[in-house]
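Before the break, one more example. Copy the sequence into your notebook; we will annotate it together after we see the structure.
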Amino acid sequence: MQIRQPLPAPPPQALQHSEQLRQLIIQAIAQNGGSIPFAQFMQMALYQPGFGYYVAGQEKFGAEGDFVTAPEISALFSHCIANHCASVLTRCLPQQSPNHSTILELGAGSGIMAADILQRLATLDALPERYLILEPGTELRQRQHETLRQRCPQLLARVQWLQQLPTQPIRGIILANEVMDAMPITLFNLNGGNTDRTDHTHIPKASPAATRANDATTQAYTNDTAVTINSVQVVHHNGTLQFSHGPTSPEQQRQISQRCLQTWDAHYNAYRPHQPYQSEYNPALDGWIQHLSETLLAGTILLIDYGYERSDYYRPERDQGTLLCHYRHHVHDQPLLWPGLQDITCSVDFTAVAAAADQAELAIAAYQTQADFLFNNGLEALFNQALDTHPEQQYRLAQQVRTLTLPSEMGERFKVMALTKGFTSTQQANTLVNLEQADRRHRRSLT
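Here is what the structure looks like once it is written out:
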C-alpha cells in the first residue's frame, strides 16, 4: 500500500538540523564507495550521536510529537503490566536472592510507563528494589527524570539510568515496549522490481557491474522458480538521497530465503514470478535477544510490539513490506525524507523472535495479542476502579480501552511475548497465572 498525503513542513531550525545529518550520511556513502546498506542509513537516521531521531532533542511522543504509544494513551496499560510484574516478583523469584526485585525498562520514552508502573506496584506492595532505565539519549533521560519527579517523587530514588545493559545479571523483569520496531533492518527486493514510491525513494536500475554480481550470487528458488535477491542500498544522486539495488551477501541470501521464500513454499505456493516484491528483516535480532538473556539471571522478559507471525509477515500480497515513517502524526512511506526528524519503523517478525529466544535458552512462557494480555492482567477490574474514582471520565476511559483492545485499533496488531529464564517448573507455571488464556504459541508459523 502506497501512502500519499501532504506532510507539514518542518520549521527552518529543524531543516537545518536534518541537513547536518544528511551531510554526514552523504559522507558515509562516499566513504563506502558510493552506497550504504539501508540498515546503516536507518541506524544513522535514528541513532547518530547528536543528530539521530532518538538521541536529539525534538519532541517525539504524545500530542505534540510524532506518534502516541500505549502508555501515553492510558495508565491502564501500564497498570496491567504492573499487575504482571507483581505476579512475577512475588510468586516466582526467591525472596532471599540478591537483586531479586529489579525491573529493567529498555527505552522508556517519556517516562510515563515507568511512573505508572511504580505507582501501581506501590499500591500492590510489590515495589522492586531497583527500576533501571536503559536510555542512551540525553534529552530523553532528562525528560524521563522530570516525568518521574512530577508523578512519583517518593519513588524516584529507586530509579537508575543506564547507557548500556547492566554488567551484572539481574533477577527480575526486562520490559521492552515498542523497542524492536525501531531496530535497523535489512531491506531487500526480489526479482529487481521497482517499488516506485516517490522521488525521494525511487529505486534506479543497478549498474551493469552490480547487475552481473547479482546474477552470479543471488539466485534462489521457490517452487522451482528462480528468484533474484537484491539488497536495497542508499545512494546520493543528483543532490538527493535515493534507493538503489545492490548485491547480497551469502548470509543475507540465507536469511531472506529462510524467512521469505521458504514461507511462501510452506504456506502459500503462490509466488508470482517477475512481480515486484520488497520486504525486510532484522539482522540484529538474534544478538539482541542473546544479550538480554545474558543480562537476565532469573526472571521474565516482556516484549510488546506490533507485528505478525512469519506466515502473515511475508504474505505474497504484502509486496511492499512493513516499512513506515511517522512525522507529526502523519504516517507515510518516505524513509529518506528529512533524516533525523521522523521515526522509521518496521513490524516485528515474532517467529524470528521465538527462534532467537530458543537459541538464547529462553523459554517462551506466552504469546498473546495485546488485548488478551491486558484483559488477562486485570484490565476490566482496573477500568471499573478508575470509573468508581472518576465517574465523570467514563467516556474518556472507555475510549482508552477501545483504543488499546479493539482489533481495528491496537488490540490485535500489537502482540505480547513473555520469555523466561532460570525458573523451576513451579515458578514457570506461576508466570502463566495471568497469561494462560488465549495463548498463541502454537499458531502454525510461530515455531
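The chain has a mean pLDDT of 86. DSSP finds 15 helices and 17 strands in the chain. Try to locate both features in your own notes.
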